[in-house]
Write a structure and sequence with these properties.
Shape: globular
Low-confidence stretches: none
Structural class: alpha/beta
Bound molecules: 5'-deoxyadenosine, iron/sulfur cluster
Number of strands: 19
CATH class of the largest domain: Alpha Beta
Distance between the termini: 57 Å
CATH architecture of the largest domain: 3-Layer(aba) Sandwich
Number of domains: 4
CATH topology of the largest domain: Rossmann fold
Mean pLDDT: 92
Number of helices: 16
Largest sheet: 6 strands, parallel
Helix content: 25-40%
CATH superfamily of the largest domain: Methylthiotransferase, N-terminal domain
Radius of gyration: 23 Å
Length: 460
């Protein structure tokens, strides 16, 4: 009898860095013969790639572990179960105590050691590896070499990991550790390989990506802007994005890159968290609302069609009605094309969690709803402002209906193109003819037809 090919199922929660890390885990396990399982039921190794940013996200791990236990009891198979990601880093051995189904715990800096950890888990050891060695992770992980079919035409590349900002609400500096940048050579090599596989758009990832300062080929530290210009030289690469930035690290050269580097998309995720200076100070953000607005103005001077996105926290300890009003005001003043909103969630070990001025849950809920409603209005207004405009779309896949292709605008909005003969991976010009709740409807440039517009409105 031949041995069964081992199958891996990674379930990722939280941010895009976890999505990227899931690929790196698959790459680290490929030499061991692991292939992707289609579901948890079918897997020999289940990895929960977790998020610790808010309590709700962290608690999901334990409900998922409960489901895995039940699944094992029902079908009589016991796959290996690993907890990875930021909950693994933050809670370590605690997870083994809380859940008997877990065979191993591995933090984000240790995925290159997965084969060894699995061998130890198979021998019944229940290993925990939460060492910090970012450099080792960056250098020893094999560069991915899987075909286009699994990667599509867009991909993430991690360029920086960790954060030294210590916003008083945030666990990232503790779970992902000190800020560290990959070298330019590594990033260029990985990007070139992805582009050779058909990738047209790269999103550079980092918890504090605009603080990037990786070693350049000249032996000096390069900024994010310099890295973007270098990557833009790669033939076949059409688009560059990066996320997430901090207002304090946004350099003049990055502003200039938005003006001068055509491949850098006019889209920016730049969280402000609150519009109140008092709260920003308590959050240890180290900038004021006015600093933020001035910065946005300067970036818009360089790139007037910039689509701005952000993150907001409501109900930070001590937040008054007046503080919250300031947040509502900054939403209008900054002009967001979209934003993510969160209720403050006290995280163990962070300074804000210790404060006695925690805001009532009912107040948080009410503020969240008001803020979300305002942002949804803004988002819809931004989408509507594109109707009638000619934009470029990177075609990513076939659309939902026959004759439709789907892709994204420079502003990251999903676009459905009717009657397009474009191929996946092509950047095409389209006329935006309508908006739906989540996407734009478009026709090939110059070919906008009345019936398409009507169809778009009927669907909207
Ligand atoms: N509570 C609520 N939201 C948080 N975020 C980070 N930490 C917390 C917390 N403790 C939000 C911030 C950050 C985004 C990734 O998650 O808005 O930008
Ligand atoms: Fe967390 Fe971002 Fe602040 Fe760093 S800059 S501490 S990752 S919110």
């Amino acid at each position: 009898m031949t041995a069964r090919t081992p199958k891996l199922f990674v379930k990722s929660y939280g941010c895009q860095m976890n999505v990227y890390d899931a690929e790196r885990m698959a790459d680290a396990l490929a030499p061991e013969g692991y292939v992707a399982a289609t579901s948890a039921e079918d897997a020999d190794l289940i990895v929960l790639n977790t998020c610790h940013i808010r309590e709700k996200a962290a608690e999901k791990v334990y409900s998922e572990l409960g489901r895995i236990r039940k699944m094992g009891e029902e079908n009589g198979r016991k796959p290996l179960v690993a907890v990875a990601g930021c909950v693994a880093q933050a809670e370590g051995a605690e997870i083994l105590k809380r859940s008997g189904v877990v065979d191993l715990v591995v933090g984000p800096q240790s995925y290159q050691r997965l084969p060894d950890l699995i061998a130890r888990a198979k021998a019944g050891q229940r290993p925990v590896d939460t060492e910090f060695a970012v450099e080792e992770k960056f250098s020893s992980l094999a560069t991915p070499a899987r075909p286009l079919a699994t990667r599509g035409v867009t991909a993430f590349v991690t360029v920086q990991e960790g954060c030294d900002k210590f916003c008083s609400f945030c666990v990232v500096p503790y779970t992902r550790g000190a800020e560290a940048s990959r070298s330019v050579a590594q990033i260029v090599a990985e990007t070139e390989r992805l582009v050779a596989q058909g990738v047209r758009e790269i999103t550079l990832l980092g918890q504090n990506v605009d603080a990037y300062h990786g070693a350049g080929p000249d032996g000096r530290d390069w900024s994010l802007a310099r890295l973007l210009y270098r990557l833009a030289e790669i033939d076949g690469l059409a688009r560059l994005r990066y996320t997430t930035s901090h207002p304090r690290d946004f350099g003049d050269d990055l502003i200039a890159a938005h003006r001068d580097c055509e491949k850098v998309m006019p889209y920016l995720h730049l969280p402000v968290q609150s519009g109140s200076d008092r709260i920003l100070k308590a959050m240890n953000r180290r900038h004021t609302a006015a600093d933020y607005l001035r910065l946005i103005e300067r970036i818009r001077d360089a790139r007037p069609d910039l689509a701005l996105s952000g993150d907001f926290i409501v109900g930070f300890p001590g937040e008054t009605d007046a503080d919250f009003d300031a947040t509502m005001q900054i939403v209008d003043a900054a002009g967001y094309a979209g934003a993510y909103t969160f209720k403050y969630s006290p995280r163990p070990g962070t300074p804000a969690a210790e404060r006695e001025t925690q805001v009532d849950e009912a107040v948080k809920n009410e503020r969240l709803q008001r803020l979300q409603a305002r942002i949804t209005e803004r988002q819809a207004a931004f989408q509507r402002s594109l109707v009638g405009r000619r934009i470029e779309v990177l075609v990513e896949r076939v659309g939902r209906h026959s004759g439709q292709m789907a892709g994204r605008s420079p502003y990251l909005s999903p676009v459905q193109i009717d009657g397009s003969a474009a191929a996946i991976g092509e950047v095409v010009e389209v006329d935006v003819v309508g908006v739906g709740p989540n996407s734009l409807f478009a026709a090939p440039a110059g070919g906008a037809r009345e019936d398409i517009r009507m169809l778009a409105e009927a669907t909207a």
